[in-house]
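Hi R.,

As promised, here are both runs. First protein below:
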Amino acid sequence: MSTIIYPSPIFGPVHSRRLGISLGINLLPSDGKVCTFDCIYCECGFNGDHRPHQPLPTPDEVEKHLEQKLQEMQQEGQLPDVLTFAGNGEPTSHPHFAEIIDRTIRLRNQYCPQAKVSVLSNSTMIHRPEVHDALMRVDNNILKLDTVNPDYIKRIDRPCGAYDVQQIIRGMHAFHGHIIIQTIFMQGECNGFSVDNTTDEYVNPWLEAVSQIKPQQVMVYTIDRETPTPGLLKATHQQLDAIRDRVIALGIPCSASY
């Protein structure tokens, strides 16, 4: 099993399937994973296998390293399409997330005003007012909703604390459309249980939630890298295309990444 632990606080740029040339901002330590989920498909591995010993990067450290990297990219003549908060866990769990967002927007405006600021989040912190307000200020507020089935979430996303999917849906609706929903679809099994969420049993209620939330966009995708759990399989192009088309039929733009 190979896993990816990203440098901190800045990594890349990398080419994102969904976002283009992406400069990563990792608000977690560079020597391990800190996340409010422990997903069986996470490319960073399981939380317990990668406990960090280094502290979280400070807002000053993030700002300093981001500015240095943007200056370097400016000199090379290749500025990023997007500044993406991602990395070794849940970025919105950083206690100074909102302040770091504001500093990032300032640097974006200075060095690469055409670039979008994106946050990839598992949605577990959106009930916090300061997190909600900060996500309202970014260009791409990309929030995870793999399913609305509590048993599937418990088995696959494995929240590390209390998790109420209906509360998450209400929190997503509170963005009033300033949200991109991101959902992974896959097949296979884990510990003898099917992880296939491409069937109507899962897709139909998920579509109902998407319709209720009214996001500006939906991104459906599948496994791209090696997972820490054996037995997981990609969703097929046909399956993803069919789900994408059902979202589009609701009047919501949707992309599929294979």
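And here is the second one, sequence first, then its structure tokens:
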Amino acid sequence: MNPFSSLLSNPNFYYYARQVLTLGMPFKDWIPLYGFADSGERIADLGCGPADILRYTDAHHKPAYYLGIDCSDAYLDSARRRAAATELNAEFLKMDLSLLTHDERVRRSLADTLCGHSITTVLLLGVLHHIPNEAARATLDLVWSAKPVRRIVTSDVIRIPGHRVNNFFCSLDRGEHIRDEKGYDTVFAQTRWQKLTKSWSSPGLSFIKYIHYCCDK
């Protein structure tokens, strides 16, 4: 059990701890990657946590709609405050996405939610490294099946052979399914998403790497 788990469940501690430990998360660089600067986007952020990226959303350049989904009341309350600060057209929904692989009601609820809100882009930010391959594939395929969705973007920490600093920070993460690049590639290769591009980013501490998968229908 990660000794920081209880502290990281506090939204403010989670944000500032990441900022300090990484010398600054690159949220501003991620704004265009995730579609937050596009007024035509209707975004669903699955496992949104406290939605810290909303701290950096420009009140004058923002998506048409944002739906945050998470299982933590504390994180959702924090995310609501972030959305209100930029007058973002947003809603928040409590849902336990860990049940997707074996609970048909949760799968149906998520699919209906994506379609009912005409979601165009789905975000899985820091999600895949928390769930096993089967659950990751099921989640990606369910999103693909939602007709309004055009794109999915993921972002995760990654183990890199020989990169000791990066891999040390991976060991501090609460995720139990952190993969190397081949591992993430394998997950996507077994889904219905085929038009795929990858990109990389780093925080202020450039030894730390994040991998992003952008998939289009």
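A quick note on the second one: The beta strands are 42-46, 65-70, 90-94, 121-125, 151-157, 195-201, 210-216. Let me know what you think.

Best,
J.
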